[in-house]
Design a protein that fits this description.
Blueprint: E1 2-11, E2 20-26, H1 33-43, E3 47-54, E4 57-63, E5 68-69, H2 73-85, E6 93-98, E7 102-109, E8 112-118, E9 123-124, H3 127-137, E10 143-146, E11 150-154, H4 158-162, H5 168-172, E12 178-184, E13 190-196, E14 201-204, H6 211-222, E15 226-231, E16 237-244, E17 247-252, E18 254-264
Parallel strand pairs: 2-3, 4-6, 11-12, 13-15
Antiparallel strand pairs: 1-2, 1-18, 3-4, 4-5, 6-7, 7-8, 8-17, 9-10, 10-11, 12-13, 13-14, 15-16, 16-17
Length: 265
């Protein structure tokens, strides 16, 4: 009987039952894509990460319950947490190789982990295009953009974002991973929410990869390179972001929830 070691970690939080839960599966060699997708569906979490050792580095892939995705921040953070804290990875830097996103790294600084991810490039939508986003969120955005994988809508304030009730059916029609809605924060630099029904996630608790789009956007707006962000989901989470031109550093804490084994006959 084949067994796969699995961990579940709450990412971008320092306490259990908050932040974004991710599963981390440790493999010796790659298994079939269909089996990885079935495991992710069975886990029923926003993301399940699978890793295979490659020398001192690791190959990594991410699956939602329904699809494989190009990039996932919180599951990468969770994976690094497992390697550093459960599997005693030496040193303070782990390098991951993604077939879809290239070289990624996670750096350990005391009790914080920092993702080193490529910065997204955003194209601002013209007014005719932004009407589509208005249908999705029920209000006219101040600005709207399209990044590599997501649409982004900027709205007036944090209070409006907290009470936002988006039309998930309309969002599911977007040809994208999902829709990020963001505003200037009251107590932090900026806040956001992320909706991706077309990827099997109505609202993601905390989306590290979305901050590769949000960090350059708000860095330019606020004229600062280091920012604090909150994602205003029910579980909530906080991120420390740093804009470094073509790279973004996205930092957070994590907590282990469970350790187990998947038994495959």
């Amino acid at each position: 009987m084949k067994k796969i070691k699995i961990y579940q970690v709450d990412a971008f939080t320092d306490r259990l039952f908050s932040g974004n839960p991710a599963a981390v599966c440790i493999l010796d060699t790659w298994i079939d894509d269909e089996l990885m997708q079935s495991i992710a569906n069975e886990n029923n979490l926003a993301e399940t990460a699978f890793i295979v050792p490659n020398g001192q580095d690791f190959e990594i892939r991410w699956f939602t319950p329904t699809v494989e995705v190009d990039l996932c921040g919180h599951a990468t953070l969770a994976t690094a947490f497992v390697l550093f804290n459960m599997l005693n990875y030496p040193g303070s830097l782990i390098r991951f190789h993604s077939p879809r996103s290239g070289l990624l790294a996670v750096e350990k600084r005391d009790d914080m982990l920092f993702l080193d991810f490529p910065t997204d490039k955003l194209d601002e939508l013209i007014e005719e295009q932004s009407v589509i986003i208005e249908k999705c969120i029920g209000i006219k955005p101040i600005e709207s953009y399209k990044g590599k994988t997501d649409y982004i809508a900027v709205i007036d304030n944090e209070s409006l974002l907290r009470t936002l009730q988006p039309d998930l059916t309309e969002i599911s029609k977007l040809k994208a991973r999902g829709l990020i809605v963001t505003a200037k924060g009251d107590d932090v630099d900026f806040v956001s929410r992320f909706f991706a029904p077309q990827s099997g996630i109505n609202e993601d608790p905390v989306t590290g990869s979305a901050h590769t789009s949000l960090t350059p956007l708000w860095s330019k707006k606020l004229c600062k390179n280091k920012l604090i962000a909150n994602q205003l989901s029910k579980r909530g989470g906080q991120l420390v972001c740093e804009f470094k031109n073509d790279r973004c550093m996205i930092g957070g804490k994590a907590r282990l929830y469970l350790t187990g084994e998947i038994e495959l006959k």
